[in-house]
């Protein structure tokens, strides 16, 4: 009752021992099956109207069959003395007021996500008793057009008579002539659904009478009246029944293994994650990550130590939240099968009672997504981008020397060749996943694809059902070949020619990771910049050998490009501003900060990048991020001892006499963001009295400069707490080995872009494949390994 933190039964004792806090409020919700009477049962009720817990109700429990009762009491430790609430007689007035305030307060998640909670769509009052005319109207799967004009976009289907009419701009910020609204005014038919938004998860429904977007709980039935199947997404015409038309093999059906009787799985490692509203990208990634032993050991294996040494507010500690989530997924406490008596009762009554299985990752999502403009929203996201975001968080919050994300880390060798001189340069960079291009030109069923496309277009023109989908079949070997092919380098500057030239780049593995993550680059942009997805089938094998992609380094007969940097051109206005005055942190260009943040970098790192590059734009700041992203304080908030003086006076900002002519960190950061070594930048600034322009000239006039070990030692001895030590870095942490792998998990995406659709995960456990579809965990019958988006391979020991 002091911190207002909540703990489960098994952890409250730990918090008591750790803090000495002795007064806790015990909250519990009871779910009971209703007792049916002559009237058919009562509405859900609460035992005491004063006690109202703002908790989520289980979506699987029908409120017509179950009722809720909330219980609250104070518990005094260490004797576990209980006081039932409310209790005005025994408790002091101040304690009673505090208890009432807690019980009547809203969930913190409703406060954190007002867009998610307070703006939830209401159920239309017309949905339950909507009149639908039996006029024989059947809606084709495509080729729609407004019945009163020629518009073919922003079209709405009236759910009463099946009219297809255009909307107005205020429906979804797109154009229209308002014929759908006119139709409502003429006929009074209240509900319409927007064509093009219908998926197995629902659609955009608008109520003209209620003048707002609404939910229609009977939408599937209302759409079926006009021949639209929400799952299969194909229409019917001429009174034909669904079973008289060959259904399309949509990715929604294949990936979710629809139509099969999947056996539910229970126990440790078979716990699902409840969907919080477009959170399936997070659930799929976390299921795959916590199937890796190194992550299990790092977090769940260290649970007592992590919980015992967690900060006073564990909701803001990454390792605590990772451990909590991992324990929930792996303990089996939240994935228990129904007892035998319940199964017998269900069989006898021919009914299925839902089980209370799966966990809600609200606190985890709130923490890992805070300050991120995309993941903190309630919109669908890219699972690959979240995976990299998670790796970044693991890197920044490592537990001692243990870093489980090292299992994904590998080195990429990039070979750049000047096409004119044929000279080469080899560099290495760190990466965490392999991005594999889709080689559409290598499809093995091109004739079928051409025939399908002709038939599909003809069906759209004639408003007939679409033919069965034909996917491009792409050999994995073609995708690997495309990965290893040379690619042109834009704006390549040849140090051999001292001028721009044509250059090509090839990439190889300088090391192979212990766990290889492969992303299929299915998402791209069309010529009109509209996102689109390649709906392809790639023969991803259970056993993968990529040893032929091992880097070979400089080969005999190859000549290296001279190690000369291109000339630096700084805009005059930016140069003058940097030479004369350091920017005030309050004047940071927020537009550049947000551009970088949208790329997935931490917000504080973006602010520092823009600050240390003097508001020179997002591109220069991006270079600063690339140079500094391995530093331990990369994502720490921007803290400066002072600012606002001239650049030459910057030394007084950072220090004092003990630093012995230490250059301002801002100017050092600008030079290193241009690609120069930090030691080189500091040496140049010292030699030119901290003049940026003269320091650049000094660097170009001293190409023989090499890193001096004595200089490094001097910096270690003289630097203060604000200056990062110049000690030689330990080098990238990689776990190299053979490039032979075995598939153990893959994440699949359904939908047209990363901004919509649904993710699920398949994981191979105990010799069989298991499908994780949000909170549902079942044995897989036909794992669609050819339709995945991200694949997880583990190395096969040699």
TrEMBL record:
Spell out the reaction equation it catalyses.
Answer: Thiol-dependent hydrolysis of ester, thioester, amide, peptide and isopeptide bonds formed by the C-terminal Gly of ubiquitin (a 76-residue protein attached to proteins as an intracellular targeting signal)
Q: Where in the cell is it found?
A: Cytoplasm
Which segments constitute the UBA domain? 587-628, 662-702
Catalytic residues (positions):
280 (nucleophile), 758 (proton acceptor)
Q: What assembly does the database describe for this protein?
A: Interacts with UFD1. Interacts (via UBA domains) with SIAH2 (when ubiquitinated). Interacts with BAG6; the interaction is direct and may mediate UBL4A deubiquitination. Interacts (via UBA 2 domain) with AMFR; the interaction is direct. Interacts with UBL4A; may be indirect via BAG6. Interacts with NEDD4.
Naming one, the record's GO cellular component terms include: cytoplasm
Q: Give the main localization category.
A: cytoplasm
Descriptive protein name:
Ubiquitin carboxyl-terminal hydrolase
Keyword Transport listed? The answer is no
| Domain UBP-type per the UniProt entry, residue ranges | 122-230
Residues binding Zn(2+), per UniProt: 146, 149, 166, 179
InterPro entries assigned: Papain-like_cys_pep_sf (IPR038765), Peptidase_C19_UCH (IPR001394), Ub_carboxyl-term_hydrolase (IPR050185), UBA (IPR015940), UBA-like_sf (IPR009060), Ubiquitinyl_hydrolase (IPR016652), UBP13_Znf-UBP_var (IPR041432), USP (IPR028889)
Q: Name one GO molecular function term.
A: cysteine-type deubiquitinase activity
